[in-house]
Amino acid sequence: MNNPISESEITPEALYLSRRRFMRNALSLSAASLLAGSCSSTPKSVLPTATVDATPPALSKFQDEFGNSVTSYENIISYTNYYEFSGDKSRPTELAKDLITYPWSVQVDGYVNNPQSFSIDQIRSSFEQEERIFRMRCVEGWSMVIPWIGFPLSRILDIVEPTSEAKYVRFETMLDPEQMPGQKSGAFPWPYIEGLRLDEARHDLAILATGLYGKNLTPQNGAPIRLVIPWKYGFKSIKSIVKISLVSEMPVSLWMALSPNEYGFYANVNPNVPHPRWTQASEQRIGQGGRIDTLMFNGYEDAVAGLYEGMDLSINF
Ligand SMILES: Nc1nc2c(c(=O)[nH]1)N[C@H]1C(S)=C(S)[C@@H](COP(=O)(O)O)O[C@H]1N2
Ligand SMILES: [Mo]
Q1: ∠ CA 49-94-125 to the nearest 5 degrees?
Q2: 50 lines ligand 1 (CB under 6 A)
Q3: Is the dihedral of CA 194, 197, 201, 204 positive or negative?
Q4: Residue 80 CA, closest ligand 1 atom number
Q5: 15: CB partners within 8 A, 6+ apart
Q6: What DSSP character marks residue 312?
Q7: Which of 88, 126, 142, 236 has a CA between 20 and 30 Å from the CA of residue 6?
Q8: Alpha carbon distance 268, 117 (integer Å)
Q9: Separation in Å, CA 160 to CA 12, 14, 174, 272
Q10: Nearest residue to 125 (alpha-carbon basis) of 58, 186, 37, 202
Q11: Any ligand 1 atom below 6 A from CB of 200
Q12: Which of 71, 79, 81 to mutate to test the pocket of ligand 1 (most atoms within 8 A of CB)?
């Protein structure tokens, strides 16, 4: 996380706008095809994982609630952070392309009445998959607007029934150095771990995503299932999850273990608290020129500020 984006990586506006026009033309089928997908008797998970192709996928909406345009599909799938593959933004696309993401299961355990393992097929068929357009703000100072397909994390929690001892939720990414070459590096305390307080995890904006732009997630975006917490810095949104545990103590995330003075447990987007090495007051929206102001809680303040009442947000970064 040392290299905030350089200008050369930014899509020229003209190219971006022409892509947008192309997408708009491809949209007539959008809502219908999305609905058909989620109601179909064929589980989506038997479809091949999305690959990099030139066809702009269908969407039912193109803007977030503030009118920000969604980031192009090409930018979302080609500019990623996935350290299990590489610290580079473009290399995970190639290095992750053969990641085996099916079959897949997610074990949910710890302080719960009904511990269980969910196959990705069960997840896709049991939890209604909805489109959610969220801003994503990386702690490095860049952001995107991403049309996810997913469902509230609370739905899975309701099924496993956390007990009164459960205070936090701990998430774990797959550990498989043979498939994930970055895990051969001793520089990181693998596997990737993240965590939320239980009430944060139950918030409606906390989702598990299985797709974006109406397609299954690409491996580099965290296939087949990842967390998305739009009011927190992007590193909280852990990819390729194999385990979700209800625990009593605050989990230590990979980034906390690596650099506790730079990456805290809460990691709520906050323009007033600079990273020790750079400002957090503004951000580069991928696909646009210039920088824009970063918003408190990434613009989700009305929805989530209540979770942190009485907390000093400048300390609890
Ligand atoms: N397992 C895992 N999850 C991860 C990461 C990672 O390296 N490994 N990177 C994080 C960071 S720093 C960001 S900004 C987002 C990026 O998501 P995207 O690449 O799909 O845009 O994923 C997060 N989830
Ligand atoms: Mo990030």
Answers
A1: 15
A2: no
A3: negative
A4: 19
A5: none
A6: -
A7: 236
A8: 30
A9: 47, 49, 21, 38
A10: 37
A11: no
A12: 81
Is residue 286 a contact partner of residue 5, using CB atoms and an 8 Å limit? yes
Ligand number nearest to the C-alpha of 255: 1
Give burial (CB, 10 Å; 0-12/13-18/19+) of 293: exposed
Residue 262 has a CB neighbour count (10 Å cut-off) of 14
Residues 6+ apart with CB under 8 A from 41: none
Q: What span, in angstroms and rounded, lies between the C-alpha atoms of 191 and 110? A: 18
Mean pLDDT score of the chain, rounded to an integer? 87
CA distance 264 to 218: 28
State the Cα–Cα distance between residues 163 and 247, nearest whole angstrom.
10
Q: What are 245-267's pLDDT values in tens digits?
A: 999 999 999 999 999 999 999 99
Q: What is the pTM of this model?
A: 0.85
Contacts of 188 (CB under 8 A, 6+ apart): 83, 182, 254, 258
Domains and CATH numbers, the chain: 7-308 (3.90.420.10)
Ligand 2 (ion): residues with CB under 5 Å are 81, 138, 234-235
User: In angstroms, rounded to a whole number, what is the distance separating the alpha carbons of residues 91 and 114?
Assistant: 39
When pLDDT is averaged across residues 86-115 and rounded to a whole number, the result is 98
